[in-house]
Structure formats: C-alpha cells, structure tokens
Amino acid sequence: MSAKTKIFVFKMKELIYAAILTLLAVLFIILLVIMFLPDKENTSSMSPQASTYIPGKYAASITLNNQALDVEVTVDANQITSVQFVNLNAAVTAMYPMMESVLEDIEAQVLEKQSLDSITYPDDMKYTSSVLIDTIREALDQASVS
C-alpha cells in the first residue's frame, strides 16, 4: 500500500472561532428572513375593508344669513385628524362670535374620542353645537367607507 496519508493539524482555537462565526452567520440569515417576510396580520389590516374612512379632506356647508360656511374634516384611514372652518369671513365672525370657540371645543372632543357620540357642550350653546355636530357628521358620512 503506497497511499500517501495526509495529516491535517488544526488548532482548537481556530475550530471554535469557525464554529462561532458559522453559527452567527446562520442566525443572521434567519433574522433577515424573519424581518423581511410580510406578516399575515399586516397585510390583512392594510386591506380597504379594515379602514374606517377614505383618507382626505371632506367639507360640509352651513348657510348663515346667506353666507356659506364650510366645515372641513380631515381624516386618515382610521382616525379623524382635524376639524376646522374654511372660508370663515369677518361678517360671520361678527354675527356669530362664539362659532369658533364652540368648534374648537367640539374638535378637541372629536379628536380625543374619534367619534361624534357623547359630545358634551354647554346648555347656552346647544343650538350652535348641534348645527356644527350635524355638519361634521355630514362630512364624515362622505368620508366613510361604505
């Protein structure tokens, strides 16, 4: 038998380093695969049926003494982000000075509750508040996903 026998000599330190680096590389690849695979929960929540509103700005009008006053509601897919007056002129603010403060109070409650249910307002402002709430509801009806 004239086979040439080869003997390899490894240092134990080199074997340990190689094993650790191989293990780290495998863990890194597994981590990358887990991170970049789409989640089943995320893909289902991004569907249009899961949304409450169609994102955008929606307006509804109030007519006060032949003056058109628009209430603009801005919504994201699942929440109301702002409620404000559009084209509010000096004549309307002079005739109805509490309109802006009532809307600010209603806006704060709507943004907190994300709903028009159980909005509270003072008794002396109930007619102004109810007109504004109805107008906001009209704008939200336009924004709602049917």
SSE arrangement:
Blueprint: H1 12-36, H2 40-45, E1 56-64, E2 67-75, E3 80-86, H3 90-95, H4 99-113, H5 126-143
Antiparallel strand pairs: 1-2, 2-3
Helix pairs in contact: 4-5
Please tell me about this protein's structure.
This protein has two domains: 26 residues; 93 residues, Sufe protein. Chain: A (Alpha-Beta Complex), CATH 3.90.1010. The chain is 48% helix and 17% strand. The model has no long low-confidence stretch (mean pLDDT 86). Strands 1-2-3 form a three-stranded antiparallel sheet, with helices on one face. β2 and β3 form a beta hairpin.
Number of helices: 5
CATH class of the largest domain: Alpha Beta
Portion in helices: 40-55%
Mean pLDDT: 86
Span between termini? 87 Å
**Major β-sheet strand ordering:** 1-2-3
Number of strands: 3
**Unreliable runs:** none
Gross morphology is: rod-shaped
Structural class: alpha+beta
Q: Architecture of the largest domain, according to CATH?
A: Alpha-Beta Complex
Task: Work out the radius of gyration.
Answer: 32 Å
**Total separate domains:** 2
Order of helices and strands: HHEEEHHH
The name of the CATH topology of the largest domain is: Sufe protein. Chain: A
Beta content: 15-25%
Largest sheet: 3 strands, antiparallel
In a few lines, what is going on in this structure?
This protein is an alpha+beta fold and 146 residues long. The protein contains 5 helices and 3 strands, in the order H-H-E-E-E-H-H-H. Helices cover 48% and strands 17% of the residues.
